[in-house]
Amino acid sequence: MTKSLYKIATIVTIGTMANTTIQIDQETKKLIGTFGSKEDSYNDIVLRLYDFAVKEQLRQLLMSDKSTMSIDEAIKKSKKRWKK
Asked: Would you state the pLDDT for residue 64?
């Protein structure tokens, strides 16, 4: 019986997240709305945009030309460092 009470309490706790209000102009609201459908809330759209932005930042970090070198350069460098 204790386990079922715990599960109910957990579900209630998760479902009572507080909402907040942010101020954006009407044009920005319209633009954000174009990323969703009628079923999507603005919260859904913003979360989807956030997920996309995080993935894009990771892609840029991993694909950055900074601190990268061509395979040929890496082979030359390793041959110099690991001479037989």
From this structure: 77
Q: Which residues contact 77 (CB under 8 A, 6 or more apart)?
A: 69
Residue 32 contacts residue 42 (beta carbons within 8 Å): yes
Domain residues for the domain of 51 are 2-81
Indicate the number of domains in the chain.
Answer: 1
Cα torsion through 19, 21, 22, 25, rounded to 10: 130
Tens of pLDDT along 64-80?
A: 777 778 889 888 988 88
What is the rounded distance in angstroms from the CA atom of residue 22 to the CA atom of residue 20?
Answer: 7
Confidence of residue 14 (pLDDT cuts 50, 70, 90): low
